[in-house]
Design brief:
The chain is an alpha/beta fold and 325 residues long. Helix content is 31%, strand content 26%. The protein contains ten helices and 13 strands. The chain has helices spanning 22-25, 33-40, 54-69, 93-101, 117-129, 154-157, 217-238, 256-266, 277-280, 287-297; strands at 3-14, 18-21, 44-47, 78-82, 107-111, 137-144, 162-174, 182-190, 198-200, 213-215, 248-251, 306-313, 317-324. Helix 7 (217-238) packs across helix 8. The protein is globular, with a radius of gyration of 18 Å.
Length: 325
């Protein structure tokens, strides 16, 4: 039976020029390279310029993805940006990206699920593309998490960085099997009773300020390992595959200990797990497409491979997605 799948046909990314090493942070934060690496695996992160909003990062990643897909901005009919650090309260980053890219009038909006945002946004794009409502979609994860940091809180400010990643999603015909190119299955979750574990202490309807990121790190770690492992298993069931079938796991790059904890819980082969946390740090919704692009460009992930994405973020939200590239 022929079915229409939503397929990832192009991938791109962008990182701001400024690199901030752990040694750089140690100059004004009570920390050290050894302390950060031991607890997180992070060695550096990128930081956007003061005059470089999130939309600028998103546009550069989108341009790269369009080139990779062999498409132009004139063909785009859907833009979804996953972000928790928009240029302004409104309009959406997607609206600004649409203007800056010069695409025709199209569907454009943001998705806010923090670190899980890219997986959520892919599922939304699937609802448009697989049902014939869009033919060339841009799904972008773009963040400037350094804007939310309290630089006196060493438990959080060392964890985050800025960047953007994007994919082009287009319809492809398949046979309804796990061998099809395209998105195969999702598992998305949210537990709003855990909002106090990871949040920003500001907002337009509460304090009237942007606020700073706050996190109960140990509790987030415990929930992340258990919840992500469950979502991976559920996404595999939804995709009619086994965990052992997956060629590559591309996790949210939050912390190397979390990545390892999930891998150990599921018995994953470490050689199949993509990790860029050491050089990117936690870029929230941008981390998965950044890591995906890095692994495709260095030749590890190839066309036809079965890939699994997973993330957990504030909300608490979490989820996983399996697709064949």
């Amino acid at each position: 039976m022929s079915v229409t799948r939503s397929a990832v046909t192009g991938v791109g990314s962008y990182l701001p020029e400024q690199v901030v090493t752990n040694a750089d942070l140690a100059e004004f934060v009570d920390t050290s390279d050894e302390w950060i690496v031991e607890r997180t695996g992070i060695r550096q992160r990128h930081k956007a310029r003061d005059d470089q909003p999130t939309s600028d990062l998103a546009v550069e990643a989108a341009k790269s993805a369009l080139i990779d897909a062999g498409r132009t901005a004139a063909e785009v009919d859907l833009i979804i940006v996953a972000t928790t650090t928009p240029d302004m309260t409104f309009p959406s980053v997607a609206s600004i990206v649409q203007r800056k890219l010069g695409t025709p009038t199209c569907i454009a909006f943001d998705v806010q699920a923090v670190c899980s945002g890219f997986v959520y946004a892919l599922s939304v794009a699937d609802g448009f593309v697989a049902r014939g409502l869009a033919k060339c979609a841009l799904v972008i994860g773009a963040e400037e998490m350094t804007r939310l940091m309290d630089w006196t809180d060493r438990s959080t400010c060392v964890l985050f960085g800025d960047g953007a990643g994007a994919v082009v999603v287009e319809p492809r015909e398949g046979q309804g099997t796990k061998e099809d190119q395209g998105l195969l299955g999702f598992a998305l979750r949210c537990d709003g009773t855990k909002t106090d574990l990871l949040y920003v202490d500001g907002g337009p309807a509460s304090t009237g300020t942007v606020g700073h990121l706050r996190m109960a790190g140990n509790q987030v770690f415990r929930h992340a390992v258990v919840n992500i492992a469950e979502a991976i298993t559920a996404a595999c069931v939804a995709s009619n595959i086994e965990v052992a079938d997956v060629d590559w796991f591309v996790p949210h790059q939050a912390n190397q200990r979390i990545i390892k904890g999930v891998g150990d819980r599921l018995g994953l082969d470490e050689d199949k797990v993509i990790s860029t946390v050491a050089i990117h740090a936690n870029t929230s919704a941008a981390s998965i497409p950044l890591a995906l692009d890095a692994a495709i460009r260095d030749g590890r992930i190839k066309r036809g491979d079965l890939v699994l994405l997973e993330a957990m973020g504030g909300g608490l939200t979490w989820g996983a997605c399996a697709f064949r590239l």
